[in-house]
Design goal:
The complex is a heterodimer. Chain A has two helices and eight strands, in the order E-H-E-E-H-E-E-E-E-E. Chain A has two domains: 80 residues, Aspartate carbamoyltransferase regulatory subunit, N-terminal domain (Alpha-Beta Plaits, 2-Layer Sandwich), CATH 3.30.70.140; 37 residues, no CATH class. Chain A is 10% helix and 36% strand. By secondary structure, chain A is mostly beta strands. In chain A, the strands form two sheets. Chain A has a five-stranded antiparallel β-sheet with strand order 2-3-1-4-5, covered by helices on one side. In chain B, the strands form two sheets. In chain B, strands 7-6-5-8-9 form a five-stranded parallel β-sheet. Chain B has a four-stranded parallel β-sheet with strand order 2-1-3-4, sandwiched between helices. In chain B, strand 5, helix 6 and strand 6 form a beta-alpha-beta unit. The longest helix of chain B is centred in the last third of the chain and has 19 residues. The chains are: A mainly beta, B alpha/beta. The structure holds zinc ion. The site of zinc ion (ZN) has 8 residues of chain A, from loops.
Chain lengths: 140, 312
């Protein structure tokens, strides 16, 4: 893949520096057949430093997941060497099966076949709470 | 048409905030009417069945629901602990409830896992009442508290309530605050040791609702202003060491001596069971209201059953 001259594909641009790998892992991009390039610590006029991910195929991505990790990301859909669609992501109101509840007393810890659902309760501080037990989500 | 294939989306009660203020007022009105005219209600639920699904034992709550349904002329079925239910064989909440909702007209469910009644309500053909999900929500306790205050204080506006004890983990208190801050002129006095103060997010909720509140460390200091004193349990497992627990527990015990500066018409409430937060000597004081409160619990549950069944 010629990284600069992508003919068809998707560019995840303006990723906060250091978050590229996390997005790569959460979107499970390692499981794809297509070529994936991660550029870390690129210079950016907007952010100073940024990460970029490029895919040489147009596929459906989970935008909620991207927004949850980093809502700065912009997504460029490339067709015939031109950006045919540019979109930004917004912190989703609801996350379905993107993160899991860590509360051992939560019904999601035992009930099978249950969706993991979180609601955004504080957009400024990016706080999500489990729909079942109301526990605030934290990484660990 | 196949009469067995009934699928509807019944109204359930999982959290107290599922009910609007108007609906809560309606429930209180119904409960008061049942108390005044019990004969008018004694056949109203004839041929209706309440299933009490108690995945963990809570005799007090289960009996309250059972008595409520029986006074309305209805029947009760169910189990009182997980060991005697299909959950012991590993059946999911979703499956259990789908089956039970074929047999019963309404379900009251208690479960040790937080959020279990919400899962149940999504798989049920009949209304589900959360009868407590592992210290998470207990909306019928909150309704009980509201009916008690309303009857004793002539309404739910313009009074000062002191909440004393474990305000950090005690979610009975959180639900009561969430319900009361929707009324006007309710002032909250929070009485707790620094370790057990009300969480910041609850204070933010009160601020957003424009509720007035103040924080005290000593029960004695808050006492003279209170119209309602709501006592809760201070649980040992919330403390790192025995010493702190004993010191704090003893400073939040209500005794006749500590009651001296209180108003003559203040009411003392407690969700029960108490351990030693209220000395037995207080029981005979006319302000003691916790057994009255338990009595109110039966009537508000009757009103709730009628409301969710669409009978009132
Ligand atoms: Zn949870």
């Amino acid at each position: 893949m010629n990284i600069d001259g992508l003919n068809n594909g998707i560019v995840l641009d303006h990723i906060t520096a250091g978050k590229g790998m996390q997005i790569y892992e959460m979107l499970k991009l390692d499981k794809l057949d297509c070529t994936v390039a991660i550029i870390q610590n690129a210079t950016s006029s907007k952010l100073g430093r940024k990460d970029i991910i490029k895919l040489d195929t147009v596929i459906d991505l989970n935008y909620d997941m991207i927004a949850f990790v980093d809502s700065n990301v912009t997504i460029d859909i490339i067709k015939d060497g031109r950006v045919c669609e540019k979109r930004s992501v917004k912190l989703p109101e609801t996350l379905k099966n993107i993160i899991s509840c860590h509360n051992p007393r939560c019904i999601t810890s035992t009930e099978q076949g249950i969706d993991q659902i979180f609601h955004l309760v504080d957009p400024d501080r990016r706080i999500y709470r489990c729909a079942y037990c109301d526990t605030e989500y934290s990484e660990k | 048409m196949d009469k067995l294939k009934v699928k509807n989306n019944p109204r359930s009660l999982i959290n107290i905030t599922d009910l609007s203020v108007a609906e809560i007022d309606h429930l209180i009105e119904t409960a008061n009417d049942i108390i005044e005219n019990p004969e008018a209600y004694q056949e109203i639920c004839a041929h209706k069945k309440l299933a009490t699904l108690f995945f963990e034992p809570s005799t007090r709550t289960r009996l309250s629901f059972t008595a409520a349904m029986q006074e309305l002329g209805g029947d009760v079925l169910g189990f009182s602990e997980a060991a005697s239910s299909s959950a012991a064989k590993g059946e999911s909440v979703a499956d259990t409830v789908q089956i039970v909702s074929l047999y019963a007209d309404i379900i009251a469910m208690r479960h040790p896992k937080e959020g279990a009644p919400l899962v149940a309500s999504r798989h049920s053909n009949v209304p589900v009442i959360n009868a407590g999900d592992g210290g998470h929500f207990h909306p019928t306790q909150t309704l009980t508290d509201l009916l008690t205050i309303s009857r004793k204080k002539g309404g739910l506006n313009n009074f000062t309530i002191g909440l004393c004890g474990d305000l950090k983990f005690g979610r009975t208190v959180h639900s009561l605050i969430e319900a009361l801050m929707r009324y006007t002129g309710v002032k909250f006095i929070l009485i707790a040791p620094p370790e057990l103060r009300l969480p910041k997010y609850m204070k933010e909720k009160m601020n957003a609702a424009g509720a007035e509140w103040a924080e005290y460390e000593k029960l004695e200091d808050a006492m003279p202003d209170l119209d309602v004193l709501y006592m809760t349990r201070v649980q040992k497992e919330r403390f790192f060491n025995e010493e702190d627990y004993v010191r704090l527990r003893d400073s939040y015990i209500l005794t006749l001596d500590r009651l001296k500066p209180a108003k003559k018409d203040m009411i003392i409430m407690h969700p029960l069971p108490r351990v030693n937060e209220i000395a037995v000597e207080v029981d005979n004081d006319p302000r003691a209201c916790y057994f009255y409160q338990a009595h109110c619990g039966k009537y508000i549950r009757e009103a709730l059953i009628l409301f969710l069944l669409g009978l009132k």
